[in-house]
Design brief:
alpha+beta; 28 strands; about 425 residues; nine-stranded antiparallel sheet; 5 helices; single chain
């Protein structure tokens, strides 16, 4: 009876943990698809940011290391510190989502057997029992048979194959030789039907794999003057390169077309906004206007930027038109207040690298406002020398969220200990709220 109770309790705890983890992954997925995809790709395949699917991590691949990378960011390279925007539990959800999408090899090693001759079937050569002349860990997590420095050799690659989801996969290969290659998953040899096609050999092999980690082993003995192969796994339109050659080929296929990765700044009269307004357009289709006279964010709209003029004759005389409705606009918007009063502002300059940043003096103290677009949200990072009580006036139509203050009666009051640097997330207010 006691054993049964313990078993049921353990089973319930396991189900509860898995359910909580699945919920975390879904929450993380939602944040990723709103924010992170712009740099790292819809499927984590990479773009202006790193590929997050494979097991290569430049700044550490443990959950705590990934979390630290996301929290602190790399502002000099265009990645903001997300701890200023999201709570730690939200970022942990993102880490769980990223790790749930990992695929490919990890801990991949090699053993080289020099001057090994293919005088019997590879199954009978017993590479695992032979003493290698050289061994080590592969720098890249892809099968590589071009390491030996002799003409004739045998090589073994072994490691862990990470599968992102359960199901039937198609293992595909292109080879220069039709035999003396063997692959094992979880200790079971795969029966490859290798076919000759002109000057090369190919195979396609269906294999059922469960989500998670699998032991993988490749045994290869060179019998052709040139050692090369391309090996990859496919499932539902997703391709997972397994060999170094397939990885290089996949990189060559990824041609990213983008008009710009930096914000565009326009200094021109815009209809519905004060004169002297400076407009900023982000690649994410988030557009914002700032009034240099009072450091107020006085316009926000999504979609296309602006129509700079109705015709050649009219350009320069007529105001530019925004192409989509404003979320908010006017003489005042998100305005900096000192001790609940509007401050005296002097505009200094702006810069666009690595983010759009505007510099002011407020009552002779330096103030800068940095802008970043995340999905349909605008992230504002304020840096101030002021020792006064700071707050932001909140216009109709938007919601301001900050980990560094709280909103009271349409005013975001900043905690004085964060005056030096505080971050605000601006989002469109949902209808009915």
């Amino acid at each position: 009876m006691i054993k049964n109770s313990i078993f049921l309790l353990g089973f319930w705890l396991l189900v509860s943990v898995n359910a909580n983890n699945d919920e975390s992954i879904q929450r993380g997925k939602k944040i990723y698809e709103t924010v992170c995809f712009a740099c790292h790709g819809k499927n984590l395949e990479g773009g202006s940011g790193f590929n997050l699917r494979d097991t290569v991590w430049v700044h550490g691949g443990t959950p705590s290391e990934i979390l630290k990378t996301i929290k602190k960011g790399f502002p000099e390279k265009g990645m903001i510190p997300f701890e200023t925007v999201f709570k730690e539990n939200d970022l942990k959800d993102v880490v769980n989502f990223i790790l749930s999408r990992q695929q490919g090899f990890k801990n991949l090693s090699y053993k080289i057997f020099q001057n090994l001759r293919a005088d019997k079937p590879i199954e009978d050569l017993g590479l695992s029992k032979l003493k290698p002349e050289k061994s080590g860990v592969l720098k890249l997590p892809y099968l590589d048979i071009n390491l030996p420095e002799v003409d004739w050799f045998g090589i073994q690659n072994s490691g862990i194959l990470v599968i992102p989801e359960s199901g039937e996969y198609l293992l595909k290969g292109i080879l220069r030789q039709g035999s003396h290659i063997q692959m094992l998953i979880d200790g079971k040899p795969l029966k490859l039907d290798i076919q000759k096609e002109k000057w090369q050999y190919t195979f396609e092999h269906k294999v059922e794999l469960k989500k998670g980690e699998h032991d993988f082993e490749l045994n290869y003995v060179k019998i052709h003057k040139k050692a090369s192969f391309h090996i990859e796994l496919e499932k539902d339109g997703m391709t997972m390169p397994l060999s170094k050659g397939a990885f290089i080929k996949s990189q060559n296929r990824q041609i990213v077309i983008a008009s710009t990765t930096k914000p565009v700044i326009l200094r021109k009269r815009i209809d519905g906004l004060p004169s002297k307004t400076i407009a900023v357009a982000f690649p994410e289709k988030v557009n914002v206007a700032i009034n240099p006279r009072n450091a107020s964010i006085n316009g926000l709209w999504y979609g296309e930027f602006v129509d700079i003029g109705p015709n050649v004759f009219g350009r320069g005389r007529l105001a530019s038109l925004v192409k989509t409705p404003y979320i908010f606009s006017g003489d005042e918007g998100i305005t900096v207040l000192e001790n609940t009063s509007k401050a005296e502002v002097d505009y200094l300059e702006y810069s666009t690298y690595p983010q759009a940043r505007f510099h002011f003096k407020v009552n002779d103290k330096k103030l800068s406002i940095e802008m970043t677009a995340l999905g349909e949200s605008l992230i504002l990072t304020y840096r101030s020398e002021s020792k006064q009580k700071l707050s932001l006036q909140v216009p109709e139509g938007v919601t301001l969220e900050s980990l560094h203050g709280q909103t009271v009666n349409n005013t975001l009051i900043i905690d004085p200990k964060h005056n030096e640097k505080f971050t605000v997330k601006v989002t469109k207010k949902e209808t009915g709220k």
